[in-house]
Amino acid sequence: MIMRHFRRLAIVGDSAYQFLMRANRWINFVRERYGMPYWPFSTYAKH
């Protein structure tokens, strides 16, 4: 339904999600370098 009626919104949402997934890799890379545990950024962002 969203894809049919709000295509632009779906595209923006998909782009934002892809950005968060890429950012998650970098965030956890930095966290690992500092000896911090894995942090699921995507789960945090969904709340």
Protein model, in words:
There is one protein chain. The protein is mainly α. It has one domain. The protein is built from 3 helices and no strands. The longest helix has 27 residues. It is elongated and about 45 Å long.
Give the topology, please.
Layout: H1 2-5, H2 7-33, H3 41-46
| Uncertain spans | none
* End-to-end Cα distance: 23 Å
Compute the number of helices. Answer: 3
Give the overall shape, derived from the CA principal axes.
elongated
Q: What Rg is obtained from the alpha carbons, in whole angstroms? A: 14 Å
Q: Can you tell me the number of structural domains?
A: 1
Given helix and strand content, the structural type is: mainly alpha
**What letter string, H or E per element, gives the SSE order?**
HHH
Proportion in β-strands: under 5%
The biggest beta sheet, please? Answer: none
Share of helical residues: over 70%
Number of E-type strands: 0
Average pLDDT score: 84
